[in-house]
Amino acid sequence: MQDRKLIETLNEFQQEYALLIEQKMVEKKVNASGALSESVALPKISLLGQVYNMQVTMLDYWKQVDGGRGPTTGGGDGAVRRNLEKWLSYQSVQAKIGGQSGRTATKSSGEGWSATRIKQAAFFMARKIHQRGTKAKPFLSEAAAEMRPKLVPAITKAVKQDIIYTIDEIEKALKK
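User: That's the sequence. What structure does it adopt?
Assistant: Structure tokens below.
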């Protein structure tokens, strides 16, 4: 069976889903450095046996942003602090959150925080996250919930069109 219409429909939904995810990121204000939205990728739709694989990929920490996280129990391994240090090294982040104590980084000046300031800020932020957790900002789960009701009818229509096309092709072949 030719699955042209189905693949076309899935590609359209994949594009629409990625755009909706990015809109939700802006709406929920979850993209301080730009790294998460820049990491959104649309791998090619693939056929695995009789299952089509449609996906949108992004950096792993989307799970903590989308679902939040509770306080740490049993101590941490330093990953939160290390990830915060990396995040705080972006000048765009420094420009958004800086200014309370000392020089603020600007994107155009090339100036930024010292390594000591980054380590200190990351330490205090990580401590607060470990103590209180973080609030969920469900950008991905909301986008998925909006897309699901549209997807099933569109897939049904595409499969119907592909079946009709296949039957027409079989009839043409039998008439020869």
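The helical segments are 4-28, 35-38, 62-67, 79-88, 91-97, 115-132, 139-175.
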